[in-house]
Amino acid sequence: MIKNLIFDVDGTIWNSTPIVARGWNRAITETGYSNAVITPQVLQREFGQPMDVIADHLFGDVTDMKRRQELLDLCCRYEQELLADNREDISYPGVLDGIRELSAKHALYIVSNCQCGYIELVMEKNKIGGFIRDHECFGNTGTCKGETIKLLMERNGIDRAQAAYIGDTMGDCEAARLAEIPFIFASYGFGRVPEAALKISKFSDIFALVEA
Predict the structure, then answer these.
(1) Which candidate in 72, 82, 160, 179 could, as Cys together with 149 as Cys, close a disulfide (CB 3.0–4.6 Å)?
(2) What is the DSSP secondary-structure string of 163-204?
(3) C-alpha dist (Å) from residue 201 to 77, 79, 102, 188
(4) At 206, phi and psi to the nearest 5?
(5) Nearest to 174 by CA among 208, 206, 148, 212
(6) Model's pTM, two decimal places?
(7) 175-200 residue pLDDT tens
(8) How far is the CA of 75 from the CAs of 42, 49, 120, in angstroms?
(9) Distance CA 29, CA 174 (A)
(10) Is 184 exposed, middle or buried (0-12, 13-18, 19+ CB in 10 A)?
(11) Measured between alpha carbons, how far is 118 from 77 in angstroms, rounded to an integer?
């Protein structure tokens, strides 16, 4: 049995991209700094990378780095406001019940390349905070996801032999490799990981993998 399960957020727990796109386009319009047009599909290609890398990709036409950071900060502010106000369930089927059930036998954690406050919002909106033992993000650490996973594992005394990272992109796979733990590919999410040895096509598939 894999005792410690560390989850990604976007593309794994929920799909926030339609809402986030609205917030980011609002920030772009208000500042007038960029000509970028953000769609859910654009965000799905970018999510999983650190926030500064996403800003480099999407706001490359903003050459003033101070303005680029101002724009990114406003994007994050508006996305969190819209997500906080959202009343629609945007989690993937079976995820919330699955997390509650998994927590009875497993220690659950979250690591994401998101900004500060995003994981807390995810837990609050989905009412899963009581099932997550710890979490960490790029906004706090400023490091790549693999290093952030390692930091969380060290902080919680997690044995690499008893842990796995669940995510939906090649970046997630590479992060798990850096942290020297198995990767479980959530193929229902945003990315493609052809080399993944462990895969779930729906969240409930995870039980057969981690409880064997």
Answers:
(1) 179
(2) EEEEESSHHHHHHHHHHTS-EEEETTSS---TT-SEEESSGG
(3) 32, 28, 17, 5
(4) -65, -30
(5) 148
(6) 0.95
(7) 999 999 999 999 999 999 999 999 99
(8) 14, 16, 17
(9) 35
(10) buried
(11) 10
How confident is the model over 144-158, as a mean pLDDT? 98
The rounded Cα 177 to chain-centroid distance in angstroms is 17
Q: What is the 3-state secondary structure (H, E, C) of 129-145?
A: HHHEEEEEEHHHHCCCH
What string of DSSP letters covers 90-117? Answer: -BPTTHHHHHHHHTTTSEEEEEES--TT
- Residue 15 is classified by DSSP as -
Structure tokens at 40: 């859910």
Contacts within 8 Å (CB) and 24+ apart, 57-61: 58/34, 59/33, 59/34, 61/34, 61/35, 61/36
Instruction: Report CA dihedral (184, 188, 192, 198) to the nearest 10 degrees.
Output: 20
What does the block give as tokens for 128? 């899963």
